[in-house]
């Protein structure tokens, strides 16, 4: 309604104003703040300390700014989380000698000042090895035999993996972590690949997507874990979509259709049907399409626009438009822009979720 004489017309201001481009400088400022000191709300995530470190260090590398960190300090921090058996006889005692997720998952030091082993965690071990790989640590110095031999204790007869040696769920998240660990260590003795493959195939649903466990609802993250694991294990070829007429161990056309339907009207990706678009699925779902060779079928311009509505004025990305940024969604916002070949960003190894060190000649 037009304002009457003597009155000012009230104009409703938008809740937020999307930025028009990817602001690398703001994102670097955001990561530097997280690198120096995590804000108070992250206290509840202390058990995932190493995962948060992974988001920061890998984020710096994707933004092509690894020189801003102290690599030696990072290496020392990561190695301090490693679990060690007291002797080689303990390797097959049922526990996993990988990396802890935090100090609180280690028992206090013994009389000699040595941190007593509690148990390693598959996701933390994936993050630890990814960080060490990013900063150029010499993997020949890692006791990979201990990690891989004890990792076998986490695999169940159906091929699935638990993240720790006792009392935890088992699903595709930890299958992926195990596959990524074997891939980075270049040694597949830590799993029964055939059993793992069969478990993954049993997780593909009637609609083409993958659930976290057989018979569960298809999910964007689970679909990524399934396809990336099969790729790392060598069961899926490059440019699979162009070879879909040939035999494949997964239903490629159905999976392609399911993934393409996850792009919503606002340009973003949802993790499941009837869910809102979420920044992180710009990686999880688009990465599946990328591995299949079907990423060219999405509306990349619309996705770009959606992500910019989630880009914070403080740097970083939020889960939904207009909210405050967090490390998790910021990291997967960076990976998404890397896949979109944003200028100034390093290319991504989609299967491992980190910078493509091979393309960089590292």
TrEMBL record:
Belongs to the protein prenyltransferase subunit beta family. GO terms for cellular component: CAAX-protein geranylgeranyltransferase complex. Its cofactor is Mg(2+); Zn(2+). The keyword Secreted does not apply. It is an enzyme of class 2 (transferase). The keyword Magnesium applies. Transmembrane segments: none annotated. SUPFAM superfamilies: Terpenoid cyclases/Protein prenyltransferases. Keywords: Magnesium, Metal-binding, Prenyltransferase, Repeat, Transferase, Zinc. This is Geranylgeranyl transferase type-1 subunit beta. It comes from Tripterygium wilfordii. InterPro entries: GGTase_I_beta, PGGT1B-like, Prenyltrans, Terpenoid_cyclase/PrenylTrfase.
């Amino acid at each position: 309604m037009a304002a009457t004489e003597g009155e000012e017309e009230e104009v409703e201001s938008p809740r937020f104003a999307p930025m028009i481009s990817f602001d690398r400088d703001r994102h670097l400022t955001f990561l530097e703040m997280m690198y120096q000191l995590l804000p108070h709300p992250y206290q509840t995530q202390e058990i995932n300390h190493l995962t948060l470190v992974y988001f920061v260090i890998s984020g710096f590398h994707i933004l092509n700014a690894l020189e801003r960190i102290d690599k030696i300090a990072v290496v020392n921090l990561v190695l301090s989380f490693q679990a060690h058996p007291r002797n080689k006889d303990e390797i097959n005692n049922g526990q996993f000698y990988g990396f802890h997720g935090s100090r609180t998952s280690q028992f206090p030091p013994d009389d000699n000042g040595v941190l007593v082993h509690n148990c390693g965690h598959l996701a933390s071990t994936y993050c630890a090895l990814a960080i060490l790989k990013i900063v150029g640590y010499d993997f020949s110095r890692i006791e990979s035999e201990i990690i891989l031999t004890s990792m076998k204790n986490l695999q169940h007869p159906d091929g699935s993996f638990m993240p720790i040696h006792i009392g935890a769920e088992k699903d595709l998240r930890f299958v992926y972590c195990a596959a990524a660990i074997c891939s980075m260590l270049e040694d597949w003795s830590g799993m029964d690949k055939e059993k793992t493959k069969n478990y993954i195939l049993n997780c593909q649903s009637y609609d083409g997507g993958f659930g976290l466990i057989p018979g569960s609802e298809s999910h964007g993250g689970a679909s990524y874990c399934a396809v990336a694991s099969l790729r790392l294990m060598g069961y899926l070829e490059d440019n699979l979509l162009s070879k879909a007429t040939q035999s494949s161990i997964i239903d490629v056309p159905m999976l392609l259709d399911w993934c393409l339907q996850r792009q919503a009207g606002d340009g973003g990706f949802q993790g499941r049907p009837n869910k809102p678009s979420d920044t992180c699925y710009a990686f999880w779902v688009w990465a599946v399409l990328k591995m299949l060779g079907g990423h060219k079928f999405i509306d990349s311009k619309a996705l770009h626009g959606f992500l910019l509505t989630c880009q914070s004025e403080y740097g970083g990305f939020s889960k939904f438009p207009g909210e405050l940024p967090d490390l998790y969604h910021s990291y997967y916002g960076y990976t998404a822009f890397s896949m979109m070949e944003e200028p100034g960003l390093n290319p991504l190894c989609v299967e491992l979720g980190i910078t493509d060190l091979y393309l960089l000649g590292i």
